[in-house]
Design goal:
The structure is a homodimer.
Chain A: H1 3-19, H2 26-31, H3 37-43, H4 47-68, H5 74-86, H6 95-107, H7 112-138, H8 148-169, H9 173-188, H10 193-197
């Protein structure tokens, strides 16, 4: 990615947080950068094309963050993932970004390219959860009866629902975090897990 | 509610499913009824006012459906609620309506009246879940360690997330239903529940 592309994509991020998806324009993106609208048009001939590229860029950042999650045990890695998605206010995008992303999700049924990219985000989260939970079951940290597929699906759905409720009805994110974390600690983690991993 | 009000609200429902929230107009609502646009304007002086009334109407229908859920045991009533929200294709609104409602949710941060009404929907679902789970714990059907507040929050979040994923990434609703139902059957229901309730 060259420097002006990065400048444009970072400006898109700021313009999206500031104005929302419905009000996002090339001019507003230009206003958030030191580039002219003409320069942005030189790189992307339409807002749609720029936005598709922007979603790819978000996807790269998102999977990068998923890959960076560390932890010695599966339980630690799962907790880091829930923290990243539901609790880490510093690292996590703020509510303005999530507000814009809910608009983008609502737009998905009308825009195949958006829907396709959002599906890759969804699948990246599901597979990371599934993998982590399966690792934990295999290592004896999580209960052997846990079905990694179903547990990953429930947690993905809970994470997406937490973001929707946060934006639509101002439901506190830390409350959703507590509910998801309690599910993991109470039902996935084996009662004698600390002995197993010690 | 008089007859023309009902006609208008039912036409709003159809127009919303057909065109989505962004493209909803008084003309399109009129087109779905046998009333003129002028008659609709006589009842509601703006689309915003009509839509606020429409959301109240949906709320009455929604709480009516929640109140109608029956079942001898708490476990039955909880299952009926999950079925209504996640599985009952016949009774449940179809994907067109849920697509429109995701647009409405995305609009909520920009419209206080919408956000307020959506919050009452959210609260109605949470309290019904909380009540049903607390009944089940009290009756010995559900495990005594279940926290009705946290379990109700997790299920509400999972239901909202299921609707978001269904619309945004075409995640199958029956998969979310299976994940939520497995959570209830595996973790909330006491292992010896059938003996208790028999």
């Amino acid at each position: 990615m060259d420097e002006s592309e990065r400048t444009i994509l970072d400006a898109t991020y700021r313009a999206l947080c500031e104005h929302g998806y419905a009000e996002l324009t090339m001019q507003r993106i230009a206003d958030e950068s030191d580039l002219s609208k003409a320069t942005i048009h030189y790189h992307y001939d339409s807002k749609e094309r720029l936005f598709d590229r922007f979603l790819d860029y978000l996807y790269e950042r998102y999977t990068g963050r998923l890959d960076d999650l560390s932890g010695e045990t599966a339980r630690d890695r799962l907790d880091a993932l829930l923290t990243m998605q539901l609790a880490d206010e510093a690292a996590d995008p703020g509510i303005d970004f999530q507000t814009a992303m809910l608009e983008v999700r609502a737009q998905a049924p009308y825009d195949e390219a958006i829907q396709e990219t959002l599906s890759t985000f969804d699948e990246a989260l599901v597979s990371r959860l599934r993998e982590t939970i399966a690792d934990g079951v295999e290592a004896g940290e999580f209960d052997e009866h846990v079905d990694p597929d179903l547990a990953a699906d429930l947690l993905t759905t809970a994470i997406k629902g937490a973001h929707t409720r946060r934006v639509a009805v101002r439901h506190p994110l830390d409350r959703s975090y507590e509910a998801a974390r309690t599910y993991v600690e109470t039902y996935l983690v084996r009662e004698d897990a600390s002995e197993v991993t010690a």
